[in-house]
């Protein structure tokens, strides 16, 4: 039979060269490309049948078969899809950047006379308009959009593994005979019709026979093919039979209507996706049609996900385009403060052959991200109200990520209502900012917080005393990012966040005591003021350059002394800054003394008797050490222990004398 030889067009040759030698470094994806072509071809038959068209061999099941011949180093991928006529093979397999799928769609629409404009993405739609999110009506059959393939380069990826390819095809419509297209992927391809015995038994569809290159024999191994299919094509909507056994057992769950999916199916898919054997805490599943079409299935894991460790790149949902995996752990689909979520996004609105580079700053992905973020926030907000315990469990595991939303101006107000903190009045219970506001004192403006490296450290902060005594609730911030986040958000429902360390004198005077205060000494008399000045001068001399300054405090503290930073930032903020500047050691701060504290009064007495008293020196140093410790720093522990021993010895001596 006459065989015709055709030259690839010059640009096709060039592209072929680039494509097979550099674009995809990942050779195994050739299988994904061929399987998705087969799947597209099957979709077209399904579409024809669904719209009442006639197809050849209508009884054939819609499926894909893969056969291996190890002796000949050949694998064959056959489908019962739409097939290609001779001309179609010339057009589709001979020309790069021409999409047969798009052509098919145009023909169908010309026949039906109704071009579905609405199916195309409308970029003009408002991005931030919440009302514009249209959730998918699950009863509507997905049609045209499913089979649009916008670029025609995928097929050529086969030449990354093939030294020769033979495509045999019988079109599903008309009565054209089978043709064989053959090429070595260099300058030309040949075409011939099958006749007589050769053509016998050949049915509708396409089979791609791949003569593997010497360096590609791995692809004749069943286990290898199986793992590639599981990895890239497991959710294709048609059965893939490999040597007689079905490989893709999991359906594209995310495309199924919610009500039809059991909890077990959801969990199975989660395990498949993450290899995590712990049940997920929550499932978020939705489909959106506008402003952009996508299906989204996300899980909130029941175990902590540490994305800051060595697996820090393994976050972000997997991106599918029409059930075909395009990018694992895509980082454009969700903001990084949702990094703890695992799952899948599948869209009809992107071309299958989109490269990873183009995925960045892609407008469609940006729209998906915005829409998905709002949907997830709404879900979490509702959950926090309807099932606060479940929400709290999520917060405890993954809250540390949500806090980073302070970086996203657009969303941080919404995430603020999802924040949870332990507070000074609620014991072990966590509170939302709304809860806190509801419990505020009359006229209270600020949302007070205290930051510490642990809950214990926060609780003993010397600035907290008066707040406790007045019953003014204070949030405990124990995560280094907490204070940073609140300072950036600045306020919640018109209530500014403020560190207890920044409280002005008299800030709490309006509130009556709810706890008994320690008996305060009489107010300082005029005669005592020089004594206080003398003590301050003595303390300065004793501590030397360990402190920037020593002064009388104007803050509402109950403790004898506190440390403040000269820059007017809170202590935890200062620590964060020091970590960033990589400075270690103990910062030089200002020591403030509380003259209304009995210890300070006693020191004044000792000092006025003898400013050089050795014991006074030990006491001042010891007071400073303790204050430093509460601030989160440890001075020389050996000197501290020694001093403490000296003071103990003295105190014990006096006490035993006293009891004699
Ligand atoms: P795309 O799939 O993006 O259109 P490809 O290079 O993968 O680009 O394929 C080019 C074209 O070849 C397809 O659009 C389709 O018309 C045709 N084609 C490829 N494989 C098959 C197949 N198995 N059955 C029918 N047509 C196919
Ligand atoms: Mg393709």
Structural notes for this entry:
The chain is of the alpha+beta class. It folds into 4 domains: 194 residues, Heat Shock Protein 90; 129 residues, Ribosomal Protein S5, domain 2 (2-Layer Sandwich); 84 residues, Rossmann fold (3-Layer(aba) Sandwich), CATH 3.40.50; 131 residues, Four Helix Bundle (Hemerythrin (Met), subunit A). It is 35% helix and 18% strand. It has 19 helices and 24 strands. It has a 9-stranded mixed sheet with strand order 1-7-6-5-8-3-2-9-10, with helices on one face. A 6-stranded mixed sheet has the order 4-11-12-15-13-14, sandwiched between helices. Helix 2 crosses helix 5, helix 8 packs antiparallel against helix 9 and helix 15 crosses helix 17. The longest helix is centred in the middle third of the chain and has 24 residues. The protein is elongated. The N and C termini lie far apart (126 Å). About 5% of the residues have low confidence. Magnesium ion binds next to helix 2. The site of adenosine-5'-diphosphate has 24 residues, from helix 2, helix 3 and helix 4.
């Amino acid at each position: 039979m006459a065989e015709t030889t055709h030259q690839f067009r010059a640009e096709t040759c060039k592209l072929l060269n680039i494509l097979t030698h550099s674009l995809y470094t990942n050779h195994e994806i050739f299988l994904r490309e061929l399987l998705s072509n087969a799947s597209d071809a099957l979709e077209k038959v399904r579409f024809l049948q669904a719209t009442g068209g006639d197809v050849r061999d209508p009884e054939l099941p819609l499926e894909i078969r893969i056969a291996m011949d190890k002796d000949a180093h050949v694998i064959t991928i056959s489908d019962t899809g739409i097939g290609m006529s001779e001309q179609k093979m010339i057009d589709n397999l001979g020309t790069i950047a021409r999409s047969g799928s798009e052509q098919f769609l145009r023909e169908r629409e010309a026949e039906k006379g109704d071009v579905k404009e609405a199916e195309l993405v409308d970029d003009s739609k408002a991005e931030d308009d919440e009302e514009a999110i249209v959730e998918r009506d699950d009863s509507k059959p997905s049609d045209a959009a499913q089979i649009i393939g916008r670029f025609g380069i995928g097929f050529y990826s086969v030449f990354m593994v093939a030294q020769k390819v033979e495509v045999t095809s019988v079109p599903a419509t008309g009565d054209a005979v089978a043709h064989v297209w053959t090429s070595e992927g260099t300058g030309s391809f040949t075409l011939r019709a099958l006749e007589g015995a050769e053509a016998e038994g050949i049915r509708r569809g396409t089979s791609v026979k791949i003569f593997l290159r010497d360096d590609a024999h791995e692809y004749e191994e069943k286990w290898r093919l199986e793992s590639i299919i599981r990895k890239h094509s497991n959710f294709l909507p048609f059965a893939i039979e490999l040597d007689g056994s079905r490989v893709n057992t999991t359906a594209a769950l995310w495309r199924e209507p919610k009500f039809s999916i059991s909890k077990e199916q959801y969990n199975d898919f989660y395990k498949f996706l993450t290899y995590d054997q712990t049940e997920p805490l929550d499932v978020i599943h939705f489909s959106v049609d506008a402003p952009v079409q996508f299906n989204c299935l996300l899980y909130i894991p029941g175990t902590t996900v540490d994305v800051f460790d060595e697996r820090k790149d393994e976050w972000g949902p997997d991106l599918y385009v029409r059930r075909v995996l395009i990018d694992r752990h895509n980082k454009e689909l969700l903001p990084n403060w949702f990094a703890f979520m695992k799952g899948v996004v599948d869209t009809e609105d992107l071309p299958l052959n989109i490269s990873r580079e183009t995925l960045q700053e892609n407008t469609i992905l940006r729209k998906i991200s915005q829409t998905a973020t709002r949907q997830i926030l709404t879900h979490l907000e509702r959950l926090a109200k309807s099932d606060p315990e479940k929400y709290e469990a999520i917060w405890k595991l993954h809250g540390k990520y949500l806090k980073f939303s302070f970086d996203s101006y657009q969303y941080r107000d919404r995430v603020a209502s999802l924040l949870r903190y332990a507070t000074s009045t609620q014991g072990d219970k966590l509170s939302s900012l709304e809860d806190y506001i509801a419990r505020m004192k009359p006229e209270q403006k600020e949302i007070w917080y205290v930051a510490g490296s642990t809950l214990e450290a926060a609780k003993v902060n010397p600035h907290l005393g008066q707040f406790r005594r007045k019953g003014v609730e204070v949030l405990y911030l124990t995560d280094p990012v907490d204070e940073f986040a609140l300072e950036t958000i600045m306020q919640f429902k018109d209530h500014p966040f403020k560190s207890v360390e920044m409280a002005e004198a008299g800030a709490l005077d309006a509130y009556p005591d709810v706890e008994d205060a320690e008996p305060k000494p009489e107010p300082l008399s005029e005669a005592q003021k020089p004594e206080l000045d003398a003590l301050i001068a003595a303390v300065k001399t004793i501590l030397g350059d360990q402190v920037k300054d020593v002064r009388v405090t104007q803050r509402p503290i109950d403790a004898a002394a506190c440390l403040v930073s000269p820059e007017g930032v809170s202590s935890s903020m200062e620590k964060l800054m020091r970590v960033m500047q990589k400075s270690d050691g103990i910062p030089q701060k200002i020591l403030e003394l509380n003259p209304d504290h009995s210890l300070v009064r006693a020191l004044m007495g000792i000092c006025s008797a003898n400013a050089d008293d050795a014991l006074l020196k030990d006491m001042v140093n010891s007071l400073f050490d303790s204050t430093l410790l509460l601030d989160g720093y440890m001075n020389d522990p050996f000197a501290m222990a020694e001093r403490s021993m000296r003071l103990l010895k003295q105190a014990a001596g006096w006490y035993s004398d006293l009891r004699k």
